[in-house]
Amino acid sequence: MLSKKQKDLIAEIWEGLISVADDIGADALLSVSCVPRSVRRMFASYPGTKTYFSHLDISHRSAHLLSHGKKIVLAIAEGAKDISQLTVTLAPLQTLHAYQLRIDPTNFKLFSHCMLVSLACHMGEDFTPEAHAAMDKYLSAFAAVLAEKYR
Amino acid sequence: MVAWTEFERATIKDIFSKIDYDVVGPAALCRCLVVYPWTQRYFGNFGNLYNAAAIMGNPLVAKHGTTILNGLERAVKDMDNIKTTYAELSVLHSEKLHVDPDNFKLLSDCLTIVVAAQFGKAFTAEVQAAFQKFLAVVVSSLGRQYH
Fold first, then answer.
1. How far is A23 from chain B (nearest CA, A)?
2. Nearest-CA distance A131 → chain B (Å)
3. Where does the source fall among the domains of life (chain A) (predicted)?
4. Closest CB from B117, B126, B132 relative to A120
5. pLDDT value, residue A24
6. Which one of A41, A116, A124 has the shortest CB-CB distance to B125?
């Protein structure tokens, strides 16, 4: 599915993001950087996605938003370490999404797009078409595996 | 009729005043052809699209990218009449070019990413939402004359 070159590109991008967080000494940067921003972008562009968070405070920079965003990025980063093992790595999350959260899978596409926009904002020119293609492919695979137990 | 807020109108005009059509247009079209390779099916007579480097160096792709951005400008100049503006282009894409309208969305996503990369932090969630709303109206108008 993903070529070796694409897997390397993806691992490189995620390592770069996580290491920036270490430098600044706060998970906060990672959480301020890509994923909670992506979640905020998603809520702004696709308001229907907010319906899944009626039980949380999702206002700007809320603790819920930051912690939730962090959970998502850690899962995506974990998956990127060994993409061939996605089904194993994501097994508990598959169950969670299928039986408890039951988020309509079209929303995964919306979130993936917002992640790509955040990456573009963060990386500028470094977010080349090749990097974009690899990341889009990875996020699609991730979303597909996540929805595997739905039916 | 689409209702535009003052923020949305200002945001769209601001973005288009700050992008170089000769840079952003080609970048967006190249990106689309690389990220969604099946879109290459519509460019059979454009010559070498064999790999990313070939696509990015292809002058016909670049020229067409600029043409697309100039086409978008027509909508920016008359945001209250986008449907009418694109009626003819919609017929062209349907009857003559036979482009699956889903592809308009793919290109608009790539354009969003290119603009995001240029604007960085300034491309906030609200700016993105406004830009995507504009592109969604364009995409819908282009698909409208299909039957």
1. 20
2. 9
3. Eukaryota
4. B117
5. 34
6. A41
Domain ranges, ordered by start, for chain B:
11-143
Interface A:B, Cβ pairs < 8 A: 57
Token pair for B140: 């819908």
Contact flag B128-A117 (C-beta cutoff 8 Å): yes
pLDDT along chain A (151 residues), means of 10: 88 72 37 66 90 82 78 85 92 93 91 92 92 95 94 92
How far from B125 is each of A56, A85, B5, B18, B140, CA to CA, in Å? 20, 33, 16, 18, 22
CATH code of the region B11-143: 1.10.490.10
pTM recorded for the entire structure: 0.88
**pLDDT tens-digit series, residues B122-135:** 999 999 999 999 99
Instruction: Show residues of chain B in contact with A43, CB under 8 Å.
Output: 125
* H helix runs in chain A, sequence order: 4-23, 27-32, 35-45, 63-81, 86-89, 91-95, 106-123, 129-146
Q: Is the confidence at residue B62, as pLDDT, over 60?
A: yes
User: In the block, which residue shows the tokens 């354009």?
Assistant: B111
